[in-house]
Structures are given as C-alpha cells and as structure tokens.
Amino acid sequence: MNSSAEKSSRKLDIGALDRCGAAMVTAAVFVLCAMAAPAMAREAKLFPPLDLFAGKPKLRGSLHHRVAIPLPRPRPAEAPKAEEPETAEKPAAPAKPSEPPPPSACRLALTEDIAIAPSVPDIKGPGGCGGEDLVRLEAIVLADKRKVAVKPAAILRCKMATAIADWIRSDIVPIAAKLGSTVSDLDNFDSFECRGRNRVAGAQLSEHGRANALDIRAFKLVSGKSIYLTDRTVAREVRESVLHSACARFPTVLGPGSDWYHEDHIHLDLMERRNNYRICQWNVWDPLPQVAPLLPAERPAEAPPREVAAKSDAAKDAAKPEAAKSEQDEIEAEDKPAPAKPKPTKKRR
Q1: From CA 101, how far away is CA 134, in angstroms rounded?
Q2: What's the pLDDT tens digit per position in 17-53?
Q3: In sequence order, what DSSP letters do the residues of 42-99 get, joined into one string?
C-alpha cells in the first residue's frame, strides 16, 4: 500500500473495522476488508460522522460515528384512509335497547270505555307458564259509565279480559236488572297461576297457567245482595240464566257436577280445541228442602178422628197379671159357702 492509502486507512470508521475484524475468519476475508477500506474512507468524507459521545469517556468497542437515518414524511391530512383488510374483524356495534312491540289489535280495542285494564309485561315461567299480550283487569266499565270492580284484579290475556267484559256488560247486567239492581263487584276466585289442572302435581298445564281462565264465585249487587252462582238458595231461574249465557260465550264452563274441584265456583276459559269442541258441565241443583219445624202444627178441627192402633205384645203381657188376678178372685168366691136363705114365714089369715 502507498502512503495515501495508509492515511486514508487511519480515517476509517473504527466501528466498521471492528466489525470487519470480528467477522474475519480466514486470511481471505481480511484481504477483502482491506480492499474495501478506500471506498469507505471516501464515504466518510462525504458524510462526516456525528460524535454522540463528545465530552464523555469513550468505551471500548462502542460506536463513535453514526449515519443519520432519514425518516418518512408525515402523512398529509387530505390523504385517504387506508382500507382495512376484509378478513379483519370489525368491533361489534353497541346493542340498542329493545323497543316494546306495537300494541295488538285486541289491546287497541280494549279501551277505557270498556274496561280499566292496563298492560303488563309478558310472563315466561317454567313449564310453558305465562303468556303475551297480558293485562290486569281492574274494573269493567258499563254503558252508563258505572264500574264493576274486579276483586282482586285479574291477570289475563287481552282476549280473555275482553270476553269477560263483554259478558258482564251484555248478559249479567240485564240479569241483575230483573232483580231490581245492577252489578257492582265481581268476585275473582282465581286468575293467572302457574300450576297444573286442579292443582294436581304432574297434571297437564291448566289454562290458569296460560292466563286464559277465570274462576268466579259471585256477583255483588248495588243493593248489597250477593248472587253466589253455586248457592242453592238463589233462585233456580237466575242461576240457569247465568249458565246459558256463559256456555254461549266460553268454550269451557265447569261448575257443580263436573268434578269435586268446582263445587263452590264456576270456571271459565277460552281454550281452543279441535272442531271447535266445547265443554259445558254445570248442574243447577234444586233448592234444598226446608227443615221441618221442631213442634208439630196444631191439628185442624175438621180432621178425621185418629185410629187407635192395636195393642202390642208388650201391652198384652202387661195385661196378663190383671186377668190372672180376676180369675183367682172368681175361684175364691166359689170356695166360700153360700149364705143361708131365710125361712119363709106363713102368713096368718
């Protein structure tokens, strides 16, 4: 090498030579590094190194000269957004609050002019209990704006509540009018209840569990009198009128005589069956006979004389001692001597 090459070699980046020295494995590799030294020296003149360790102690093997790395220009504001790959999963949109379903046609028809029946949320209970389009039937509004209170309020499907309201307004009110009064209260014995039929464990789900049935015991009148539908003391004509009206409107009517579970109330429901099959089982019993008075009535004067009954055997036995006594008296009388007869006296002439 000439003197110029030696001067250039002294100005070489020490870190680069260190890297070459660390990479030399054979003498051939060392020769290649020496041949590349002049080119590296010229590059160092064009791009003078930055001394990052000025004023600081230099550590052995550390880099004293670094080349400035160019950075990318900032992205202009008007640049289009980068399209996301189709396979990338988009974040799930936040769930919107569920909106209540629109009111049904039944709900729109059951206005406050017919009944006080606010809507209640749908019920979804175990075993299929519950239902949709439910209302709480609190009162039935009559044509003259008077109200028939449902006590207690009944949870029913809208269609069942509408059927009860129409029945009271169209049928029961005229029946009460014949008695000289009008209906004021409806005695609700049972409405919605998640249970089997007749509350028997394991039985088929009752229509009460579907909010599709109502049990009624009585109607109370404005006069204060109550009409108990299973009371035999209520006029038979009244009970039969209620029976015929109920069976004409409801597919299921159960009362006394149907089973032992409906002897004190009437069951009504809107259960749908094949071929529109209907059940009407309600026996209107006759009134019970009146209890006989404690004392017999006074015998009328025109009544025929009573016939004396023949003596009984006991009476005959009681009469035997008397007969025996009379016979003994007769025997004793025979044993006594007859009294002496007086001698006849001759008459003097």
Answers
A1: 13
A2: 445 444 444 555 455 555 655 666 565 555 555 555 5
A3: HHHHHSPPEETTTTSPPPTT---EEPPPPPPPPPPTTSPPPPPPTTSPPPPPPPPPPP
Distance CA 113, CA 139 (A): 11
Question: pLDDT tens across 74-107, in order?
Answer: 877 777 776 666 655 666 666 666 677 788 999 9
Give the residue extent of every domain in the chain: 3-53, 105-281
CA distance 212 to 158: 9
d(CA 22, CA 33): 11
Whether this model's pTM surpasses 0.85: no
| Strand stretches in 191-240, DSSP E | 213-221, 226-228
Question: Is-cis flag, bond preceding 49, omega within 30?
Answer: no
Give the pairing type, strands 213-221 and 266-269: antiparallel
What residues contact residue 109 under an 8 Å CB cut-off, 6+ apart? 162
Residues in the chain: 349
List phi, psi (to 5°) of 26: -130, 170
Token pair, residue 177, equals 């009018």
- Helix, strand or coil, per DSSP, at residue 325: helix
From first CA to last CA, the distance across the chain in angstroms is 241
Cβ(217)–Cβ(265) below 8 Å: yes
Structure tokens of 124? 């979804």
Q: 154: which residues sit within 8 A by CB, 6+ positions away? A: 136, 137, 161, 164, 188, 191, 192, 214
Identify which of 233, 230, 137, 145 has the alpha carbon closest to the alpha carbon of residue 182: 145
